[in-house]
User: Which sequence fits this backbone?
């Protein structure tokens, strides 16, 4: 049975045009003609050149732009980009980050950025800190912003390894089933590893804890999405740690051999328990596994939406992250309500009062 799951979520980069500072170079005045006396120099002091424009919250904006690059197409999906334009838009976001950090586009730096290599992450964190120090509000917390970049990068690097493992399993299911057993076993460690995700969700510092938590929720949702299409006995490996962090439900005891099938019905029992802990229990009216599984799945996702909703009011510093989070919350709510309505029917409409 195929379960309906949510589409990949999240949204596009910050629409900030690069701002230049400084004007055109002035040429020296032409020499006075020989027949004209040179005027005596004035005693008036030269005017002070205007200060360079302040890039308000440029450090914070760059930090979120880097996160948008690392989230890739899922960020653009929440922004409303079409599947046809999503890849190009994601590339454009990353190229923009490279230009803002290094002053020009660079293919090697771009590839290192997409691979979340430590040298480029360090350069971004350093530039974020430098820019933040130029802002009166962000200057006292410039080091915290730099640490936020490092935390997001570490969590996304962890997710990248998990995604690659899942892609190998999907490839084997489709084309090379003889390699499935070995790749299932190899996928176990990266699927279970969520140490950096947990660090991001528990990030504290200045006013950016909610930014970090919202980005952590989005990363955890990506983990849920990674489980789609995995063999049923591997799904809990993909989502168990994140669900335990967020809802306090430990995964059931799992065999160390990822090729060992789970006991029949364990996935549905586990998913139902998580949905209940997330505040969206499967209704008693759902009797069959075919009814219960999509309700449990969307109930868990609605719980993710509730967690993300708790950060929305605090995301006042960055409109793009607020927009992305808001879109994701709305989609998760809508999907859960659609499953409930499929079971019970839409809510009854009140009859208009007679005059």
Assistant:
């Amino acid at each position: 049975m195929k379960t309906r799951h949510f589409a990949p979520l999240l949204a596009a980069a910050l629409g900030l045009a690069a701002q230049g500072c400084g004007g055109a170079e002035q040429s020296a005045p032409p020499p006075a003609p020989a027949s004209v006396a040179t005027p005596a120099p004035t005693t008036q002091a030269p005017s002070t050149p205007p200060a360079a424009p302040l890039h308000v919250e440029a450090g914070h904006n760059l930090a979120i732009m880097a996160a948008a690059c690392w989230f890739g197409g899922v960020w653009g999906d929440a922004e409303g980009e079409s599947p046809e334009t999503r890849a190009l838009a994601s590339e454009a976001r990353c190229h923009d980050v490279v230009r803002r950090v290094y002053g020009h586009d660079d293919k090697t730096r771009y590839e290192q950025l997409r691979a979340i290599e430590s040298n480029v992450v360090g350069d971004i964190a350093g530039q974020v800190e430098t820019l933040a120090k130029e802002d009166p509000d962000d200057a006292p917390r410039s080091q915290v912003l730099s640490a936020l970049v490092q935390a997001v990068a570490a969590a996304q690097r962890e997710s990248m390894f998990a995604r690659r493992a899942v892609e190998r399993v999907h490839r084997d299911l489709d084309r090379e089933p003889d390699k499935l057993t070995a790749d299932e076993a190899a996928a176990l460690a990266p699927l279970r590893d969520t140490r950096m995700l947990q660090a991001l969700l528990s990030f504290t510092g200045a006013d950016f804890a909610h930014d970090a938590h919202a980005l952590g929720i989005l990363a955890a949702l990506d983990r849920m999405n990674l489980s789609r299409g995995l063999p049923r006995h591997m799904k809990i490996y993909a989502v168990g740690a994140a669900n335990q962090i967020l809802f306090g439900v430990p995964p059931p005891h799992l065999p160390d051999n990822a090729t060992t099938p789970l006991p029949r019905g364990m996935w549905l029992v586990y998913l139902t328990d998580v949905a209940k802990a997330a505040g969206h229990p499967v209704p008693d009216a759902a009797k069959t596994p075919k009814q219960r599984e999509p309700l449990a799945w969307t109930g868990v996702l609605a719980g993710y939406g509730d967690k993300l909703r708790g950060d929305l009011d605090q995301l006042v510093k960055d409109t793009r992250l607020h927009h992305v989070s808001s879109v994701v919350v709305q989609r998760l709510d809508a999907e859960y309500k659609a499953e409930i309505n499929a079971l019970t029917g839409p809510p009854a409409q009140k009859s208009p009062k007679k005059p």
Notes: Confidence is low (pLDDT under 50) at residues 1-54.
